[in-house]
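Let us begin with a simple case.
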Amino acid sequence: MIVDQLLVGPLLNFTYLVADREGGSAAVIDPSYGLEPVFEAIDRRGVKVRYVMNTHGHADHVAGNGEVVRRTGAKVVAHRRAPAPPDVPVDEGAELVVGDLSVKVLYTPGHTKDSVLYRFAGHLATGDTLFVGECGRTDLPGGDPSEMYDSLVGRIARLEDELIVLPGHDYGPTPTSTIGREKQENYTLRPRSREEFLRFLAD
């Protein structure tokens, strides 16, 4: 399996090239601005991009959708509530096949109404829901602190410790982490009641 984490654009975005093998089938997750490193990786790996997968519809995560589609013929995957209707709308529990890779969708609203995670082969692409050491904002349009609580405490904190976290931005002390490490070190995942969490975000 291939997981290329590529730092692109002015906002420290991570775009990911994920493939089942060299020369195999691939997906690009959250194509942001300045995609030449991504296309160089596609060419170097010799892969066929089947899907563009968006974790949510903010501009810095979808800016490169059109360019990737034009160059590769890929289909755009996003939650059914995404601002721009995707080619392949998904929701909780959906499964996508990328060559020999199975990619499962977890619906995690809070940062936006269309936020999803993509889980594959021991990895979890978390977009702007979970960063290394932090979580996404909930004060932007579509954000909801109560939904973020459900997504973080009700979903993410219950996942296996070994899962490798692939965040949407390079905001933390390291570019990747694990669910187990985030449970120990990420102050947004500390055990709290819903009321305590809402007060915490408000502060």
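The second case is a distinct protein. As before, the sequence precedes its structure tokens.
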Amino acid sequence: MGAAAFVWPLVSQMNPDASTIAAGAPIEVDLTPIATGQDIKVFWRGKPIYIMNRTKKQIEEARSVPLASLPDPQSDQARVKEGHDNWLVVIGICTHLGCVPLAHEGDYDGFFCPCHGSQYDSSGRIRRGPAPLNLPVPPYSFVSNTKIQIG
């Protein structure tokens, strides 16, 4: 008992402090509470991250868009993890001037930036407006079928 009381503070002090975690330590997100067609917003490195559980319709619409018609051509498959096509994970910062777009808004059932009118589709790709690039995809991986690690 005495040894455990002595060792605990030594082990505990090796964990990263809150400022280190805020500076970019990886975070894990449980996907179970996100129903099909819904999204959540979490924060990693001080940036909003949208995690969207896309419907089959949203996936089909995103994949039917000719790449040549996109200002920043990128296939939907390149923006999601293989075998997890329904999960879209993007940094929620407009690539025009850094505003935070709204999810499930606009003409493409994706994201809409109300500040200057940029519209992104359900794959986070720019479709209309002044934004020059797609919403970035952060580094992430699936820890299990119901949990991802961002960072």
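The chain is about 15% helix and 30% strand. Strands lie at 27-30, 39-44, 47-53, 87-91, 102-105, 110-112, 119-120, 126-128, 140-144, 147-150.
Keep these points in mind for the review questions at the end of the chapter.
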